[in-house]
Automatic annotation (TrEMBL):
Keyword Signal among UniProt keywords: yes
All residue ranges annotated as the Solute-binding protein family 3/N-terminal domain in the record: 33-254
SMART domains per UniProt: PBPb
Protein name: Transporter substrate-binding domain-containing protein
Keywords of the record: Signal
Database matches in Gene3D superfamilies: Periplasmic binding protein-like II
Signal peptide boundaries: 1-26
Highest taxon listed in the record's lineage: Bacteria
């Protein structure tokens, strides 16, 4: 009888251990690892330097994973068009890719605490005829399909034309294929550092016409526990100045405050 009770106790303990492991595995795709989806071609958010993936969101994701108690950060790079599909297919736990919260995405996905508040601009030629957001009406602009920039361009009455990445958008304006692009001020300022002879310029879109975008980590609806840990990690990074430090390092200005 004593032996029988011992076997039952051991079986019970084993079940508890398995259940605990199952809960841990459910929080991330791989135990002890935060798997992050991003483009890797959108400097200075994420890009390659001497073949190595770097950038604001790369450093931020690593620090966030560390504060969540995870040992590793794994990055999966893919094109913008495949980024959201990859999240649906569970190819990664979270997307760190200058992802703006909007009502449509909020219905389908879960967002952690925002880490950037990004103002929208119109990029165009210096001698072009676009001088205000109102001038965009009916004009072709280069945007990534499904991006918030695409939605904002349509809201302003423009006609978005698909562009796979930021550099291509700038080339399309240079070549006269489009009149401009709605994008983030930070991305253009960074790009301009390595294109000092460009005749492209920009003006800010008033927040009364397009509100500053809340940029946040995006994950599947089922990942409530993961979001709770990520919220706590990012809030601690904001509190101790880590967010501001990373912003100054990559953008030369603080874009993490409202």
């Amino acid at each position: 009888m004593k032996k029988k009770w011992s076997l039952l106790l051991m079986a019970g303990l084993a079940a508890l251990v398995l259940a605990a492991c199952g809960q841990k595995q459910a929080e991330t795709k791989t135990p002890d690892t935060l798997t992050v989806g991003l483009e890797g071609t959108y400097a200075p958010y994420s890009y390659r330097q001497n073949g190595k993936l770097t950038g604001f969101e790369v450093d931020l994701a690593k620090e966030t994973a560390k504060r969540m108690g995870l040992k590793k950060t794994k990055f999966v790079t893919t094109g913008w068009d495949s980024l959201i599909a990859g999240l649906n297919s569970n190819n990664y736990d979270v997307v760190f890719n200058n992802m703006a919260e909007n009502p449509d995405r909020q219905k389908k996905f879960r967002f952690a605490t925002p880490y950037v508040y990004s103002k929208s601009i119109v990029i165009t030629k210096k001698d072009g005829d676009i001088k205000s957001a109102k001038d965009l009406k009916g004009k072709k602009v280069a945007e990534g399909t499904g991006t918030d920039n695409w939605n904002n361009a349509k809201k302003l009455g423009a006609n978005p034309i698909t562009s796979p990445d930021f550099q291509t958008s700038m080339d399309m304006i240079d070549q006269g294929r489009v009149a401009g692009a709605v994008n983030s001020r930070e991305a253009f300022e960074y790009w301009k550092k390595s294109h000092s002879n460009t005749d492209l310029t920009y003006f800010e879109i008033p927040t009364s016409e397009v509100k500053a975008s809340k940029i946040a980590p995006m994950m599947n609806k089922k990942n409530a526990k993961l979001q709770a840990k990520m919220d706590k990690a990012i809030q601690s990074e904001r509190k101790d100045g880590t967010l501001k430090r990373l912003s100054m390092k990559y953008f030369g200005t603080n874009i993490t405050d409202k």
